[in-house]
């Protein structure tokens, strides 16, 4: 390039310099071409400069040079750096047309001076210059100049950061051929071209341009992620195994020291003199050897020295003399005749309780004394709440209030009971009477011909008549009781007499009637073929009969009499006769009778047989009902007792009623009818409804109606006129709604004959969870996990440890190291075979329960 | 004919010593014990109550620093030693058993922000706001310790407790004489203040965090490797104990990054809504780590899947400042700006335990002891506090029968923990008033928010309003 020293051309110069420094080594001419072409269009002067420089080559043309404004010269950095945008082309400047024109220009009128274009002039001159410099024909440069664009549109000087558009578009890039062309024919050209050709084929070693930084980083990160993930993934099996193990053990192989007595003993070192002496004897090699051998040498070793022998002998002599002296002393004592002395001596001996061991007689005496004590205890009846304390407790009612006191008193009574029982057992005959009676009764029931039965009844009645004596002690001796008893006895006597008459009649009537005698039993099943006899005898009679027969227990008789009125109410219904169909209608139509029917069935299990197909649906209901008629049951019970007294084989039962057969009035009532009659008095349905209402009220209480309480909210007339405040009414209505809703949502809301309690049991509530706990997915699994106890009382000691083992077993004071990698087979079953204590190898047993535990996790 | 007889040999039933237990035979027929469930429930209840009665977690405080504790480091090779550093540049080595300062390391001009010990326990590395990294050689355990642990390489804390009673005078004398000042073995200077340091597990590299992440070698004054990312500084750094070449950092621009120091760039980056103050790797599960976040929650991540947290651990009412995993990997301890220390199960959403005292201020650092029995917290009130990891644990030597009893109690309690009464007793904790109030407030706010969301959902077209799960809510994205 020309040696321009002007500072205005500095930019172009630096550009060229930089080219020289950094770019490939190009021939000067080409550099020049490039420099000319890629001249910046930054400012006019620079253009001018270049022109000027060119001019310099052609002719020595001098032009006025406008100074660069100080801002642009950037001298001393005094001004902010900014670009002059006045003459700058827009960034998106497109000069397609111009370029094509230029191309045309380049193609057609290369040397056209008429165009008057500086560039053309330049080209022309430039080729000439090149020709002169290189000595090559101008054609070589001609094509080059043709192909290149003529107009420079770049806003910045071209450089490595600002390539031209052509370069970016991929056009007009310098290739190896361009550089090789001038070398053609020179020695070594062939070689170079071959090398280049080879290089071109070899795509492997091509170094591509680096990617943009963000993109590069992303790719790098991706690679690293892959690597790190791989590192992490190799741990998965190990981690999974550790997590699934029911127990993780840490540092189990670290030995912390002794744990057994033997281990400690083995380390024992004798310290004191005595210990050393012992050790020297024990560890004597001779002795141990002798032990190891047959032991014969032990005798030899056992040899005693003379000194020892003398010592031993002296010792024995001393002991003997002591013994002798003691003997003498005891002899002397025995000789003493003073009774007081002996008494005192014996007392001492006794007190020391040593005597009993020595003297058998004394032991006997002791036993006697003990027995006496026991007898005394029984006689005083200390334990029958006669003590001061017990009396006080009972009088103040503390025994009801406090459980402890109650228990203590009960215990006393219990003790008393045991003692008294023992007393009873001593005299034998007391209870035998009763048992005899029972036996008799049993006999009667077993094989009773009617005649025998009647005879027996007669006998009993007579006996009852005879023994009228009033008890003269206790409750019965009170005057009013005595009077009542007397009255009752008179009645009973009358009854008895009547009964006797009847018996006589029966006996007279003999065999024909005997078959018609009645069997009274509460629990017989009504057979379909059974003959049913209408009741004839009044109910009262039978009761009295019962009273008389049970002469042993007068009180029972009284009680039975009390029940009578109820039964009397029932008797008219019993006398009415209805046939089976009618009853059926009743059952269908009348719910009352239906329930009674059900209840009856409920009361005695054996009656279920006759719950025909009609009543299946009611049966269901009846099962759920609480037994609403305890009274009825009572009655039945009493009747059962009564029935045991007299039975005859082929007789039918009419519930609790003693009946007599008489052919003319006999009519067969249906079983349902009978039941109906039997329970005509009990209004079960009403009772049940009442019960249900009560339960409902308790569980879903009815809200109280708001009322005007005098003195509250009605002081003034206005208030009174207003009545109950709106708020209260609203509240009440809301409550009422809620109540109704509560009733509706009950399970038994639609079931008329059923009460289903929805009362929450607070005590049971605390044993239930409201929701299913987290790791469990189903109720069954959770319940199963809670099913078996884990305590040592409920499980053998071999598995208690495993059942109770914590999740982490570690040793305090031992450093736990981080996990070390080891290969784990993922298909291996997780098992807990790690020994708990490495010193004690326990049998490696797996219980099925523990496996279940693992699974549930 | 075969006759079954009960045969019991005398030898089997003869006791060797009078203290031996008599052999007892049980019939384990469940029909004989119909009330076993009720009995065990009652035992569980009693165990729960006993646990409450014996819950005395605070063992003692270690005072000596003159400014708030900024960081701590435990000696991986020596159970009793713990290093702590304060905001005034003071570094101390404590003996946990006696709760005394063993040694001081003076030198730092400003606050010490990072402290770590090499795995062999010989080199202590500290860094601080004075742009210096100092390496110190850790004094060997002194006479009384060598007596105990020279034969065996294990250190037994409770053994020492016992020994104190015997040799207390000797110990005192030795402690007084062994208290000395140490000189740094090397000082390396950086351009920027350093905020954290962590040592590689079983290697000789350590990483410092500041304006950039630097990897250093013990013997070189210049970092071996540097990672830069973004313009924000790196707050915390933690090496993975299982995978020694992998480390995780958190930075001021709410990023959590995982690096492999063999590679030149970060492996994964998670962008969260709030800053992460500290990170702890699970020592038993090398792919998992937990991040202590500024929003008061901890987030457990799987290093391979970062778009959502594995578990969100909620309970703190203020920023969580530090976190450390138990060596068992089943629990971790957190210290929070709300003046409390909490212990979380590694897979549980809520804390198992909260520790606080009236005097404890903002907790800046926590450590779990290497035997997973103790927890140490350092707070703004210049004290280190030693806590039991299990509040009601019985310390000292426990006889086998006693141990069995404890285990049974624990098992029974664990079995019935879902029942309301036991749950109530076990969960009950007394909270300081500020925490209690803050919790109530946040609960009210969360409830209101939830209600609002529900309503919004109910009144918009189905599918248009989507509630984001807690696990992804605070995570903006995983940087590709």
Keywords:
heterodimer, A: 857 residues, mainly alpha, two-stranded parallel ribbon, 0% strand, B: alpha+beta, five-stranded antiparallel β-sheet
What does this structure look like?
- The complex is a heterodimer of chains A (857) and B (480).
- Chain A has 857 residues and is mostly helical.
- Helix content of chain A is 58%, strand content 0%.
- A two-stranded parallel ribbon of chain A has the order 1-2.
- In chain A, helix 31 crosses helix 32.
- Residues 1-23, 40-60, 98-116, 424-448, 511-662 and 832-857 of chain A have low confidence and may be disordered.
- Chain B is globular.
- Helix content of chain B is 22%, strand content 34%.
- In chain B, the strands form seven sheets. Chain B has a five-stranded mixed β-sheet. A five-stranded antiparallel β-sheet of chain B has the order 15-16-17-18-30. A four-stranded antiparallel β-sheet of chain B has the order 1-29-28-27, with no helix packed on it.
- Chain B contains eight helices and 30 strands.
- Classes of the chains: A mainly alpha (857), B alpha+beta (480).
